[in-house]
# Entry
Amino acid sequence: MRILGATVLVMEAFTLSFGLLLAMSSADGIWLLAGGALAVLLILTAGLLKRRSGWIIGSMLQVGVIAYGFVVTAMFSMGALYTELWIAAIVVGRKGEAARARLSGR
# Structure
C-alpha cells in the first residue's frame, strides 16, 4: 500500500513540476512558488506514508493539485487522474494487506 501511494505522489510531483514550466509564461511569481511548494510537499508526504497522518496529508494535497488547475488548466484533468490513482492505491493496498494477513495467519 505504501509503495503504490508513494509512487503516485512522486509522479504527481513530477507532473506538477512540468505544469510549473507551462505556468512560467503566464502566472505570477506567487503561483509559481505555491506550485513548487506543493510539488515539494508531495515528495515529502511520500516519506510519511508509514503513518496514518501521511495518508491524510496526501489526500488533502490531492485537492491542492486539482485546485492548481486555476493556474494551469491542464492540471484539472491531471489532478483528477492522480486523485483516481490515489484512491486506487488506497483500495488496492488495503486488499493486498488483508490478503497478506490471511496468508500469514495460516
Residues 2-104 form one domain. The mean pLDDT is 92. Residues 12 and 92 are 18 Å apart (CA to CA). The chain has four helices and no strands.
